[in-house]
C-alpha cells in the first residue's frame, strides 16, 4: 500500500498529480465521455467530485499530457491537442440574483 496522502478538500487535478496525492484513476471514463458525447449536465450532490472532474477535463483540453502519466488516459489518447478553455467559477458570485449574475458574467467574460 502506498503512503500517499488523500487529497481532502483539493479539487485541482494538476495539484493532486504534481504533489503526489492519492488519486483513483477515472480517466478512462473521462476519455469515453469526451470521445462519445456532446453535452453533459452534471447534477450531483455537494462534495461529489464535480469540481475535480471539471479540473481534469480542463487539464485534458489544455493538452497537459504529463499530468496523465501512469493513468489510463496516457494510453488511450494519441493526439494531445491544446484547446482554448473558458473557465467560469460561479462559486465566487456572492449574490445569486439574476441581475447580479448577468453583471458578473459581463464583467468576467467581456473584460
Task: Walk me through what this model shows.
This protein is mostly helical. It has a domain at 13-83. It has five helices and no strands. The chain has helices at residues 13-18, 27-36, 50-61, 72-76, 98-109. The longest helix has 12 residues, at 50-61. It is globular and about 50 Å long.
* Mean pLDDT over the full residue set: 87
Portion in beta strands: under 5%
Q: Structural class, please? A: mainly alpha
Helix-strand pattern: HHHHH
Uncertain segments of ≥5 residues (pLDDT<50)? none
Q: Can you give the helix content as a percent range?
A: 40-55%
For the biggest sheet, the summary is:
none
C-alpha termini separation:
48 Å
Number of strands: 0
User: How big is the Rg?
Assistant: 16 Å
Described by the principal axes of the CA atoms, the overall outline is globular
Question: What is the number of helical segments per DSSP (H or I, 4+ residues)?
Answer: 5
List keywords for this structure.
AAA-ATPase-like_dom, single chain, 111 residues
Topology diagram in text:
Blueprint lengths: L12 H6 L8 H10 L13 H12 L10 H5 L21 H12 L2
What's the gist of this structure?
This protein is mostly helical and 111 residues long. Helices cover 41% and strands 0% of the residues.
Amino acid at each position: 500500500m502506498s503512503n500517499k496522502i488523500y487529497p481532502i478538500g483539493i479539487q485541482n487535478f494538476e495539484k493532486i498529480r504534481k504533489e503526489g496525492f492519492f488519486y483513483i484513476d477515472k480517466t478512462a471514463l473521462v476519455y469515453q465521455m469526451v470521445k462519445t458525447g456532446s453535452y453533459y449536465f452534471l447534477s450531483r450532490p455537494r462534495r461529489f467530485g464535480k469540481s475535480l472532474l471539471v479540473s481534469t477535463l480542463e487539464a485534458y483540453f489544455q493538452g497537459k499530457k504529463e499530468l496523465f502519466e501512469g493513468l489510463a488516459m496516457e494510453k488511450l489518447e494519441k493526439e494531445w491537442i491544446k484547446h482554448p478553455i473558458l473557465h467560469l467559477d460561479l462559486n465566487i458570485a456572492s449574490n445569486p440574483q439574476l441581475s447580479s449574475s448577468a453583471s458578473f458574467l459581463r464583467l468576467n467574460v467581456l473584460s
